[in-house]
Structure formats: structure tokens, C-alpha cells
Specification:
Layout (H helix, E strand, L loop, with lengths): L8 H34 L39 H7 L27 H7 L3 E6 L6 H11 L3 E7 L9 E4 L4 H13 L2 E4 L11 E5 L12
């Protein structure tokens, strides 16, 4: 027998409505309980990773005993090989070309030694050759020797203003005549001196006064 059999129709309708409301309330209450329990299990973190108390990450720290695998290796030595430097250096005790005492390879025109270019440049200076001896044509013979060696002989004659003791090349100091006279004297084996008063105002050029001590063809070499 139904629980609503003794009740009037309006009361039956009200009872059914109350039962429906109770069922709906029960369903809503169950859903609410399920959602609340799910939120409590999820926790407050929004990053998806568990956190340690105090907000610090609970991820394990890397072990200090493990050395990083990407540590740079020490650079290779950049010191040049000593053998290549030693091979280009001159041997000990042997001066290189152009150094004091280095005879082979010494550059022309260095102090104390006249090179071929310097010697050739001096030979353009005018020579005036005079005989001061009783030997005839001695000045001509000397002039021929000088020309054969490349010297510029411009005049040949006699000097009769006095006796010159020995064959000498005279020059005006501080001019090109000085270097030329010294080179000529060295080449032919006589002396070179500055001009004396008797020839001080003579024509420009090296004045070579030949005496009886001159030997024709007496080229001594430079």
C-alpha cells in the first residue's frame, strides 16, 4: 500500500514534489563533496611540480662530486719551436753580412772600406798630371796608367816651380778631390796631401806631381 494512499490528491502532489526536491538536493550535495575532495588532493601548487615547505623547490640538487663534462681542456702550447729560430741565426762567432768584421757580404761604401761603386764615382774627378823630374815623358806615362785604370786625366805637363821630394796627389780639403786623391794614391802607391801655397789657386782637380820615384805601370791595386 502506497504511503500516499490515505492522502488527498493535492497532498500527494506536494509530497511527490518534496521527494523530488530531496533527490535533487542529494545529487547536488554528492557532486559538491566530490569536487571538494578533488581540490584538496590537488594542493595549492599551480606549476604542476611538488614544492617543499617554505616555497623552495623539492627537486634534488646535483651532487658536488660530479665534475661538469664540458670543462675546457688546457690550451696547447703556443711557444715556437726553437729549432726553426736557431736554423736562421748565424753561427756563433761568425759575424753576419754588413756587421763589423764581416768580410764576405760587406756592403760597398761602409766606413773604412770603399766599395766598387764609391771607387768608380771618385774617378770622374779631374786629374792634372805634371812632371817634376828629369825623366822625359814621365808624366805622359803616368797619365796613361791613370787613364787605363779609368781615371779622368784632363791635362799633362811639367811643373818647374820647385822640387817635389816624392810623387804626390794634391787636393783641396773638403771637396771631391780629397777622396779621389786618396784613392788614386792608394791605387798607385804614392801619397796624397792638401794643396800647398804654390798651387793653391791652380785649376780645379787633383794635381799629381810626378817625380823620379814613380815607376810606369806601377799599379798597386785598390
Amino acid at each position: 500500500m502506497s504511503v500516499f494512499s490515505g492522502l488527498s490528491r493535492p497532498l500527494k502532489a506536494a509530497g511527490v514534489a518534496l521527494i523530488g526536491i530531496a533527490v535533487v538536493a542529494a545529487v547536488i550535495g554528492g557532486v559538491t563533496v566530490l569536487n571538494t575532495s578533488g581540490d584538496q588532493n590537488a594542493g595549492p601548487s599551480t606549476s604542476g611540480e611538488p614544492t617543499a615547505p617554505g616555497g623552495s623547490s623539492s627537486a634534488p640538487e646535483p651532487s658536488s662530486s660530479a665534475a661538469p663534462s664540458s670543462a675546457p681542456s688546457p690550451p696547447a702550447s703556443s711557444a715556437p719551436a726553437s729549432s726553426s729560430a736557431a736554423s736562421s741565426a748565424p753561427a756563433s762567432g761568425q759575424p753576419g753580412p754588413g756587421q763589423p768584421g764581416g768580410q764576405p757580404g760587406q756592403q760597398p761604401g761602409q766606413p773604412g772600406q770603399a766599395g766598387p761603386d764609391q771607387q768608380a764615382s771618385n774617378k770622374w774627378v779631374t786629374l792634372r798630371v805634371y812632371n817634376n823630374s828629369l825623366v822625359k815623358h814621365l808624366a805622359e806615362q803616368a797619365a796613361a796608367d791613370f787613364r787605363a785604370s779609368g781615371w779622368n786625366v784632363a791635362e799633362v805637363g811639367n811643373y818647374s816651380q820647385g822640387n817635389i821630394p816624392t810623387t804626390t796627389a794634391y787636393f783641396r780639403p773638403g771637396t771631391d778631390e780629397e777622396a779621389a786623391a786618396k784613392q788614386l794614391a792608394k791605387e798607385f802607391g804614392f801619397q796624397a796631401q792638401p794643396r800647398f801655397d804654390g798651387i793653391q789657386n791652380s785649376s780645379p782637380g787633383v794635381i799629381v806631381i810626378i817625380t823620379k820615384d814613380y815607376q810606369p805601370g806601377g799599379h798597386k791595386g785598390s
